[in-house]
């Protein structure tokens, strides 16, 4: 059934639900923030926030935890989007956490700053006293995420306790928290990867260029194509070469694999996803560390 | 594109995970890397088959114990529809998680092992579908392969279940009995060749064809105000828009409306969906409404049509399902949240609890414990603009929040 080439329509009731959640956040919390990574999911969140509060401005800042290992195209896009929407942007750097001795850079072939960014994120929440952080996680991505509520309460240490989740009934969202606690909010919980793309298509949204086909220096590792960069620790036999690729998911350059693709239009991307045999997070090295990699990271405060 | 929300209840033993795995597998919704990951994990656990329950049981504790603890949301689609399965636990101690997962469902799948027929937890699962007024219930009589695909066995279980239904209150609920073997794929997405005596649809065929009553639009209009939009920009200097998601009914431009609790009346000037001005909003739509007159309205208030004003309750009687470890006791204060409205409430009376097996009321109870269901009365500090749950489901429910822990401790159904 997934090989069909007709592009399905975006289910509009998902947008109604997400806008409702955005407004609940603005109404129930004193200092919310939107966690912005520059990927398609957080770009979708910005679009939804724009819609939820129009003709007013987005009533909370976008927060970017910059690992220093981002794709330059993502950063350029971020700055363009901020200018275009008039939203406030706050950037905090993982490098600062490293310099302050709070975290230690990983070593070895698979070194990445993915885990490190949790510390910077928790420090940023503390610095600005954010009581709610909106994130673009979707339940279809990964099985620990499939268990998460829309309003997910975190304790003083930013930790998620999957056994103590609040019941969420009908569309009643309870954002009441104790001092020190904060809430992670996931407005696109019920969207799938395909929903995000059909939304991008129907809304005619701009996205970073790396989602479309381009020529790039890459290396081959573990049967996957990795973007070559100064941040990637390579061995001698990993010789960079040029390839026509695109990215299906956008994380750090050190943990996001590319796919060979000539898709240069959103319709092509949607057809590619409909026919795909590998899931979106199959291209994320950060998830492959163990069966429970995501749950462990979430318990420690990852979003 | 339609979205169908399904709730499944049961334990691994009923073949629930296998059933979900089948639905995903036969709609091409499991990607190769996920399948390989499950195969690898199955081997590591020393089982000699691909354990599809590993697909749904996502928490470390769940995999350790081989049970479902919390709701997992699983997505699949066909060219016609998008499906969201809330896969909920079947054990009594996780009833609150089951209610969480099932509260938005249009269809519930209750799994019954054909060898055992109706067991205690079937009663509880069915009671919850009744309590939540889920319009469709698929009674999946599973593991038919283990009873030689026997028609009489199927009919016997069906008869048992119909007896159960005869005692139920929500009569409009539609039951569909489907004999299946999720292990072999009989009547999951394809009709079974083993059961030519069965003329009904497979589970997927049934799901593809249901239409749930567009009732919500026929109910009175209820527009709880979530947020007031005041841009104060040069271009939108005097703009005051009331943002919300219409719970029920229809609102049109030009409708005469009343704001509650102030009782001030006005007329709908404009309705916006983002930049687009629209003439009409229906139940479920997230919109922004402006009024012709400047009247005081803030979050928690409700805009309704002039000839459909709800009573404004300060004394509420409700069925309650308790979700917290500390039991509900008469005399205690809670915060009651109904839509966007939060008010202080006191439990004035607690007069019986319900046995979900025989539906008998137990009088004279002192408290209602975790996962139990009872009747209570509440007194609220300010009026709540609710309807009777049986008359307008989404405007007839509320949650109770403990002011100490801030947890959601109960869910109530008014009437």
TrEMBL record, chain B:
<dbReference type="GO" id="GO:0005524">
    <property type="term" value="F:ATP binding"/>
</dbReference>
<dbReference type="InterPro" id="IPR011779">
    <property type="entry name" value="SO4_adenylTrfase_lsu"/>
</dbReference>
<feature type="domain" description="Tr-type G">
    <location>
        <begin position="1"/>
        <end position="216"/>
    </location>
</feature>
<dbReference type="InterPro" id="IPR009001">
    <property type="entry name" value="Transl_elong_EF1A/Init_IF2_C"/>
</dbReference>
<dbReference type="InterPro" id="IPR054696">
    <property type="entry name" value="GTP-eEF1A_C"/>
</dbReference>
<dbReference type="InterPro" id="IPR041757">
    <property type="entry name" value="CysN_GTP-bd"/>
</dbReference>
<dbReference type="InterPro" id="IPR031157">
    <property type="entry name" value="G_TR_CS"/>
</dbReference>
<keyword id="KW-0547">Nucleotide-binding</keyword>
<dbReference type="InterPro" id="IPR044139">
    <property type="entry name" value="CysN_NoDQ_III"/>
</dbReference>
<keyword id="KW-0548">Nucleotidyltransferase</keyword>
<keyword id="KW-0067">ATP-binding</keyword>
<dbReference type="GO" id="GO:0003924">
    <property type="term" value="F:GTPase activity"/>
</dbReference>
<dbReference type="InterPro" id="IPR000795">
    <property type="entry name" value="T_Tr_GTP-bd_dom"/>
</dbReference>
<dbReference type="Pfam" id="PF22594">
    <property type="entry name" value="GTP-eEF1A_C"/>
</dbReference>
<dbReference type="InterPro" id="IPR027417">
    <property type="entry name" value="P-loop_NTPase"/>
</dbReference>
<dbReference type="InterPro" id="IPR004161">
    <property type="entry name" value="EFTu-like_2"/>
</dbReference>
<dbReference type="GO" id="GO:0004781">
    <property type="term" value="F:sulfate adenylyltransferase (ATP) activity"/>
</dbReference>
<protein>
    <recommendedName>
        <fullName>sulfate adenylyltransferase</fullName>
        <ecNumber>2.7.7.4</ecNumber>
    </recommendedName>
</protein>
<dbReference type="Pfam" id="PF03144">
    <property type="entry name" value="GTP_EFTU_D2"/>
</dbReference>
<dbReference type="InterPro" id="IPR050100">
    <property type="entry name" value="TRAFAC_GTPase_members"/>
</dbReference>
<dbReference type="GO" id="GO:0006790">
    <property type="term" value="P:sulfur compound metabolic process"/>
</dbReference>
<dbReference type="InterPro" id="IPR009000">
    <property type="entry name" value="Transl_B-barrel_sf"/>
</dbReference>
<keyword id="KW-0808">Transferase</keyword>
<dbReference type="InterPro" id="IPR044138">
    <property type="entry name" value="CysN_II"/>
</dbReference>
<dbReference type="Pfam" id="PF00009">
    <property type="entry name" value="GTP_EFTU"/>
</dbReference>
<dbReference type="GO" id="GO:0005525">
    <property type="term" value="F:GTP binding"/>
</dbReference>
<keyword id="KW-0342">GTP-binding</keyword>
């Amino acid at each position: 059934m997934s090989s069909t080439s007709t592009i399905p329509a975006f289910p509009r009731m998902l947008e109604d639900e997400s806008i409702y959640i955005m407004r609940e956040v603005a109404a129930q919390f004193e200092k919310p923030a939107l966690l912005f990574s520059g990927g398609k999911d957080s770009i979708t969140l910005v679009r939804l926030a724009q819609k939820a509060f129009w003709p007013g401005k987005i009533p909370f800042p976008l927060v970017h935890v910059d690992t220093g290992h981002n794709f330059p195209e993502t950063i350029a896009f971020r700055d363009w989007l901020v200018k275009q929407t008039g939203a406030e942007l706050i950037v905090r750097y993982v490098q600062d956490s490293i310099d302050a001795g709070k975290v230690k850079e990983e070593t070895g072939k698979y070194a990445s700053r993915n885990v490190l960014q949790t510390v910077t994120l928790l420090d940023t929440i503390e610095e600005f006293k954010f009581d709610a952080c909106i994130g673009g996680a979707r339940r279809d991505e990964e099985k620990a995420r499939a268990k998460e509520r829309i309003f997910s309460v975190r304790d003083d240490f930013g930790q998620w306790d999957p056994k103590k989740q609040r019941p969420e009934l009908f569309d009643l969202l309870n954002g009441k928290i104790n001092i020190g606690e904060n809430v992670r909010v996931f407005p696109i919980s019920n969207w799938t990867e395909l929903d995000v793309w059909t939304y991008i298509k129907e809304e005619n949204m701009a996205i970073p260029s790396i989602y479309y086909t381009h020529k790039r220096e890459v290396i081959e590792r573990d049967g996957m194509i990795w973007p070559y960069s100064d941040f990637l620790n390579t061995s001698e036999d990993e010789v960079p070469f040029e390839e026509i690729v695109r990215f299906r998911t956008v994380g750090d350059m050190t943990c996001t694999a590319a796919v060979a693709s000539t898709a240069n239009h959103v319709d092509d991307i949607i057809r590619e996803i409909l026919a795909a045999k590998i899931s979106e997070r199959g291209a994320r090295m950060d998830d492959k560390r163990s069966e429970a990699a995501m749950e462990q990271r979430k318990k420690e405060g990852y979003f | 594109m339609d979205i169908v929300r399904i709730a499944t209840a049961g334990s691994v033993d009923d073949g629930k995970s296998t059933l979900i795995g089948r639905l995903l597998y036969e709609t091409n919704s499991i990607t190769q890397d996920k399948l390989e990951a499950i195969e690898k994990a199955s081997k590591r656990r020393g089982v000699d088959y691909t354990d599809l329950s590993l697909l749904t049981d996502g928490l470390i504790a769940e995999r350790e114990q081989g049970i479902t603890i919390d709701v997992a949301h699983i997505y699949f689609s066909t060219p016609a529809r998008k499906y969201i399965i809330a896969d909920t636990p079947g054990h009594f101690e996780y009833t609150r998680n089951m209610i969480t997962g099932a509260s938005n469902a249009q269809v519930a799948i209750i799994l019954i092992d054909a060898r055992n027929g109706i067991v205690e937890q079937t009663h509880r699962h069915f009671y919850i579908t009744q309590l939540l007024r889920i319009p469709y219930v698929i009674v999946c009589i599973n593991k038919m392969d283990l009873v030689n695909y026997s028609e009489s066995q199927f009919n016997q279980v069906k008869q048992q279940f119909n007896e159960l239904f005869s005692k139920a209150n929500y009569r409009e609920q539609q039951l569909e009995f489907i004999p299946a073997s999720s292990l072999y794929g009989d009547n999951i997405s394809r009709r079974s060749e083993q059961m030519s005596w069965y003329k009904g649809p497979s589970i997927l065929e049934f799901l593809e064809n249901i239409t749930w009553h567009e009732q919500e639009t026929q109910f009175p209009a209820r527009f709880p105000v979530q947020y007031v939009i005041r841009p104060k920009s040069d271009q939108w200097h005097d703009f005051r828009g009331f943002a919300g998601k219409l719970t029920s009914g229809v609102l049109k431009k030009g409708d005469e409306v009343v704001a509650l609790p102030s009782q001030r009346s006005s007329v709908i000037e404009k309705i916006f969906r983002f930049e687009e001005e629209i003439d009409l909003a229906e139940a479920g739509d997230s919109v922004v409404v402006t009024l012709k007159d400047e009247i005081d309205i803030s979050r928690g208030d409700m805009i309704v049509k002039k000839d459909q004003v709800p009573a404004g309750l300060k004394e509420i009687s409700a069925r309650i399902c308790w979700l917290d470890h500390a039991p509900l006791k008469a005399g205690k204060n809670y915060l009651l949240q109904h839509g966007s409205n939060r008010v202080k409430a006191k439990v004035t009376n607690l007069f019986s609890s319900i046995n979900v097996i025989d539906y008998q009321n137990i009088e004279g109870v002192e408290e209602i414990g975790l996962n139990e269901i009872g009747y209570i009365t509440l007194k609220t500090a300010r009026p709540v603009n609710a309807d009777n749950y049986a008359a307008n489901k989404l405007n007839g429910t509320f949650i109770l929040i403990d002011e100490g822990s801030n947890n959601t401790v109960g869910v109530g159904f008014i009437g």
